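Progress against Task 2.4 (sequence-to-structure conversion) is shown through the following example record, which the project officer requested during the mid-term review.
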Amino acid sequence: MIFMLLIPVSRSHQQVLNLESRHESEAPVPLMLDLMLSGPARGFSSDLDILKVFSIFYQADQHPESGASLWPSLAAYLERSQRKDPYFIDTYRLACSLLAYDANMPEKAVQLVREGLPFLESWDIPFLAGFIAHDKLHDDRLAFALMKSAAEMKNAPPLTLNLAFRFLSKAEGPEAAIAFLTKMARTLPKQYRKGIIKRILQLKENRNESSD
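Structure tokens generated for the chain above:
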């Protein structure tokens, strides 16, 4: 799976940045046309879309002043990857990390996961989306619905719903969220942690201010 190979891919894709850098900020070809051109090779085409996501993220990370113009393209390639291969879990993982926290497009990240729910077999993806709905969208009703969907999956730990209640309980404060995001960041290569670490620091700052 591409997500498990983020580090080697991130190195190799730098070799093609010079070839693609002039095109990444442009909108991809229309989605329906792309789907038609992909034909029976949609899985492979989905992989190529994810490689473009890595390339766009690298450019946005290296040139933050251009991020505003690059993030919509990153979102578009994640969307078409999901449409071509809705079972490809790496698409959802990248949506819940890069799209939600680096591109600051949590609505699109959650929407992409919601559309993929019928195809997902891993409980952690809808649970992550539920956390994003709570943390970034401040929509606890949606957050609980997504976390409940996660808890109902066959491979979900028995305590999933209890964990959901912890996040949604104001009595917990930011501690549960900080712990969760810290664990999430550890699953990512260092170059893809920036947005999540920024959010952790914000939560810690808010916690310290409220305790003063």
